[in-house]
Every structure is written in structure tokens, then in C-alpha cells.
């Protein structure tokens, strides 16, 4: 989708590597190289969650994706290798009714699952249009500063029985952690018998870019 992007360096701490292959990063504030991909986890999902965290030049590839399993809900946990000031989320989903209706964002809550996410108020929600291109969704950066992980919750698809995501990326700035990170072993499989579809989502989602 068309958008303007300023990749000039400002006064903030930046993780820019100006010699890095632009085909991999795309934007110089793409956080691809700062995502802890081996520990990316998706709950109620078929497919390897790490495989939707793709280099920029593979963003339109549809060979690898994750799709919800027992119903149309998904939780994706994404840890970073340092501290991040997040600016935007990049997403390619679909097709059609398999597109998430919306995505709820939870920074710094790396252990959220279906049992407790209904008791949490998300920091931001974005509406996802049916579009086979990569969409860029700006976040309220002040609320996504100094984060070490982000959890994304898909409460429903746009009509089909499952939700599907092909590509997930992040734009922002990265700072190396000053302390040794705590290594957390995440569950690799959700117990679908314990997964009950969350009801009562009020539908008051923010529009992309607001």
C-alpha cells in the first residue's frame, strides 16, 4: 500500500546498518534482524510461527504461512533481542474471509494465552482490511517504547472458519539490552481442549494509522 516513509536519522538512538542489504530489510528501521525468531510462538496455529517473520524481499511470498486451528482465533508472541521503540506493524494476511478482522496488541506480556487474554485490555487495536498486499499499521509509539516483546491477538476472522497470516514485520528503533536477557521456554503447543473462543469483543477497533 502506498505510504511515505522517512528513513533519515534523527537524534534518537538508531539501529540502522546503512550497509545492510536493502532487499532483506526494505526500510532501514525494519526490525527483522532484531527479532528472536527461534522463540516466536503462535497458539492455536498450524505452521511454524517463525516462518512468517520473513526478510523484506519475501514479504509477498505465500508459500509459508500460519493458520488458526480449532477456530479463527490466534495468539502470536514475538520477543525481540533488545529493547524496541515500535513505530508500525507490517502485515500480509488473507485471502478474503481468512483475513483477521482486527488485531489486539499487548507489549511486554510474553506469556499471554487464551485463558488470561480476555482479562487484559489491549494497548491498541487495529482493523485489518481484506487486501493481499502488505499493510503498514502505525502504533501509538509512546505506548510501545522500551518493549522487549509484543503479543498479537486475533479475536476473529472476516467470515471463514480460520484466520491466516503470511507475513509479519515491525518498524522501529532497537537498543541493545544492558542486562542479560532472561531465557524463557515457551510452550510449543497449545492445549486446544482448553481453548474456548472468547466472546463479547466490543468491536471498538482503532483504524490503521490512528
Automatic annotation (TrEMBL):
GO cellular component: cytoplasm; nucleus
PROSITE patterns for this protein: PITH (PS51532)
Xref: InterPro entries: Galactose-bd-like_sf, PITH1-like, PITH_dom, PITH_dom_sf
Coiled-coil segments: none
Domain PITH: 20-190
Domain of life according to the entry: Eukaryota
One Pfam family cited in the UniProt record for this chain: PITH
PANTHER family in the cross-refs: AD039 HT014 THIOREDOXIN FAMILY TRP26, PITH DOMAIN-CONTAINING PROTEIN 1
Family to which this protein belongs: Belongs to the PITHD1 family.
Name of the protein this chain belongs to: PITH domain-containing protein
Amino acid at each position: 500500500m502506498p505510504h511515505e516513509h522517512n528513513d533519515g536519522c534523527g537524534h534518537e538512538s538508531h539501529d540502522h546498518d546503512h550497509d545492510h542489504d536493502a532487499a532483506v530489510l526494505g526500510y532501514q528501521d525494519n526490525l527483522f534482524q532484531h527479532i528472536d525468531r527461534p522463540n516466536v510462538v503462535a497458539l492455536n496455529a498450524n505452521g511454524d510461527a517463525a516462518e512468517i517473520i520473513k526478510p523484506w524481499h519475501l514479504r509477498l511470498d505465500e508459500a509459508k504461512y500460519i493458520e488458526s486451528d480449532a477456530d479463527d482465533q490466534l495468539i502470536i508472541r514475538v520477543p525481540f533481542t533488545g529493547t524496541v521503540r515500535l513505530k508500525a506493524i507490517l502485515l500480509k494476511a488473507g485471502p478474503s474471509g481468512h483475513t483477521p478482522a482486527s488485531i489486539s496488541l499487548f507489549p511486554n506480556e510474553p506469556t499471554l494465552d487464551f485463558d488470561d487474554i480476555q482479562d487484559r485490555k489491549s494497548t491498541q487495536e487495529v482493523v485489518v482490511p481484506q487486501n493481499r498486499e502488505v499493510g503498514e499499521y502505525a502504533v501509538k509509539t509512546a505506548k510501545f517504547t522500551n518493549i522487549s516483546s509484543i503479543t498479537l491477538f486475533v479475536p476473529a476472522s472476516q467470515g471463514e472458519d480460520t484466520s491466516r497470516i503470511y507475513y509479519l514485520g515491525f518498524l522501529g528503533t532497537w537498543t541493545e539490552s544492558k542486562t542479560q536477557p532472561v531465557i524463557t521456554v515457551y510452550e510449543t503447543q497449545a492445549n486446544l481442549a482448553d481453548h474456548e473462543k472468547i466472546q463479547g469483543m466490543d468491536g471498538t477497533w482503532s483504524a490503521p494509522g490512528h
